[in-house]
Specification:
2 domains; four-stranded antiparallel β-sheet; single chain; 0% helix
Length: 266
């Protein structure tokens, strides 16, 4: 079951199943401005074999198909420059838990597969998996702008790739030493504004914080709402142009779609 929300606030419930497939488990969903959905996950095909898959749901919701991705566990996925599909998977082989960046053509053909060097991911070896690798992709965040792809790992490391898959930026995520917290989401605009939201407890109250990336200084700074703090139940959907799209909840009104216009002041 998928739920989608349009920029004008309309809800949509989408049921997804495919003939010949058993249980389908989705790990990532991406939606285009035109309404197409691309899915990544794992399932059982008509032979009973467990396999990864990429799935497509057309704008009219009737055009649907799946492409098998045998031998892969697709933990996180997005669509990047020129419609290429990007994913990070966990390696089932040696070393267990290491992470691999996959790039697919828009129709699901595997183009490249690259071992990643990430925090607690082990030391790199030429043309071989890193030593002592650990999985940092499950529940991580992968997002794309017009010319790059951004990844926030579960070890609080932020990485950017250019359109060829080469790493162009790699640094720690926002400092979280003062708080008990969890990442809520990663968002990147078409013009490469980057926001990370976190939730934590302060004075016995749940607080939602936003952090923006200063590319020149390669550090994170705290972003605040101009009129009030962000509600603790804020859910971040991403960017519509340069506007941040979120939702919140008020007892009198129910679920709200909230648009924020960003400023450059720090």
């Amino acid at each position: 079951m998928l739920w989608a929300i349009t920029p004008d606030g309309r809800d949509e419930e989408i049921r997804f199943s495919m003939p010949g497939w058993g249980l389908l488990t989705l790990t990532s969903v991406w939606g285009s401005d035109q309404g197409q959905l691309i899915l990544a996950g794992n399932g059982q095909d008509d032979t009973g074999e467990s396999t990864g898959f990429l799935g497509w749901i057309g704008r009219d919701r009737t055009d649907r198909h799946i492409a098998k991705v045998p031998g892969y566990v697709l933990n996180v996925m997005t669509v990047g420059p020129r419609g290429m599909i990007w994913a990070v998977r966990s390696n089932r082989e040696e070393p267990p838990g290491s992470n691999i960046l996959l790039r697919f053509s828009p129709d699901g053909k595997l183009l490249t597969s690259t071992y990643l060097s990430v925090r607690r991911g082990g030391a790199l070896r030429k043309d071989k998996p890193p030593l002592g690798g650990r999985d940092v992709a499950f529940n991580s965040r992968l997002r794309a702008s017009l010319d790059r792809v951004a990844w926030l790992t579960t070890r609080n490391e932020y990485i950017e790739f250019d359109s060829t898959g080469s790493v162009t930026l790699q640094l720690n995520g926002p400092s979280t030493e003062r708080y008990g917290w969890m990442h809520d989401t990663l968002a990147i605009s078409a013009a490469n504004t980057v926001l990370i939201s976190t939730r934590h407890w302060r004075d016995n109250q749940a607080v939602q914080d936003f952090w923006s990336l200063d590319r020149l200084k390669q550090r994170w700074f705290h972003s605040e709402a101009a009129e009030a703090t962000f509600p603790s139940n804020t859910q971040v959907y991403g960017f519509d142009g340069e506007d941040l799209m979120t939702s919140g909840h008020k007892p009198q009104l129910g679920q709200l779609l909230v648009r924020y216009r960003l400023s450059e002041t720090k």
